């Protein structure tokens, strides 16, 4: 007689159940944490709306192209802390000079090559693993055939 249970018995092992509970606990923590953070950010955004930089609500002209922050600049200009690069802009309506964080092409190129290097390294590692595993399986198959021939 077959059971009406549709869950495989292997899924009911305590270790598997603990891993599922841990996974779904982390997922729910992530979801509810994001909801709480978005509520806090919305409250902060309402208070910051008054002091928003002019480039967020006005037209602006770039006065100085994107460049890296030097020692003193990184401490005095808050926009430097985000990416380490800043551009000077001039807002047209209020005629204010402000600094805006930016991403430099040098930094983007550096991150691209870092990513490419990491992908190449992973490719080599996994290629070596595949070749090693294939040799192991070939050895096991030939041993099995040899044992079958010897048993005849």
UniProtKB/TrEMBL annotation:
A Pfam family the protein falls into: JTB
Compartments in which it is found: Cytoplasm, Cytoskeleton, Microtubule organizing center, Centrosome; Cytoplasm, Cytoskeleton, Spindle; Membrane; Mitochondrion
Record key words, sorted: Cell cycle, Cell division, Cytoplasm, Cytoskeleton, Membrane, Mitochondrion, Mitosis, Signal, Transmembrane, Transmembrane helix
One Gene Ontology cellular component: centrosome
GO BP field: mitotic cytokinesis
Bilayer disposition of the protein: Single-pass type I membrane protein
Transmembrane parts of this sequence: 16-37, 111-131
Gene3D superfamilies noted in UniProt: 3.30.720.220
Role played: Required for normal cytokinesis during mitosis. Plays a role in the regulation of cell proliferation. May be a component of the chromosomal passenger complex (CPC), a complex that acts as a key regulator of mitosis. The CPC complex has essential functions at the centromere in ensuring correct chromosome alignment and segregation and is required for chromatin-induced microtubule stabilization and spindle assembly. Increases AURKB activity. Inhibits apoptosis induced by TGFB1. Overexpression induces swelling of mitochondria and reduces mitochondrial membrane potential.
PANTHER family, per database record: JTB PROTEIN-RELATED (PTHR13041), PROTEIN JTB (PTHR13041:SF3)
Subunit text: Interacts with AURKA, AURKB, BIRC5 and INCENP. May be a component of the CPC at least composed of BIRC5/survivin, CDCA8/borealin, INCENP and AURKB/Aurora-B.
Family (UniProt): Belongs to the JTB family.
UniProt protein name: Protein JTB
Record organism: Carassius auratus (Goldfish)
Taxonomic classification: Eukaryota, Metazoa, Chordata, Craniata, Vertebrata
Gene for this chain: LOC113119339
């Amino acid at each position: 007689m077959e059971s009406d249970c549709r869950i495989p018995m292997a899924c009911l092992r305590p270790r598997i159940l603990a891993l599922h509970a841990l996974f779904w606990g982390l997922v729910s923590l992530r979801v509810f944490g994001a909801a709480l953070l978005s509520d806090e950010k919305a409250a902060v955004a309402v208070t910051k709306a008054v002091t928003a930089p002019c480039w967020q609500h006005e037209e602006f002209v770039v006065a100085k192209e994107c460049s890296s922050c030097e020692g003193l600049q990184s401490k005095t200009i808050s926009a430097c802390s985000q990416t380490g690069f800043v551009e000077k802009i001039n807002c047209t309506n209020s005629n204010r000079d402000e600094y805006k964080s930016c991403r430099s092409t040098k930094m983007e190129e550096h991150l691209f090559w870092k990513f490419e290097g990491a992908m190449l390294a992973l490719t080599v590692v996994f290629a070596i693993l595949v070749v090693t595993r294939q040799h192991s399986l070939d050895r096991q198959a030939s041993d099995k055939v040899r044992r079958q021939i010897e048993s005849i």
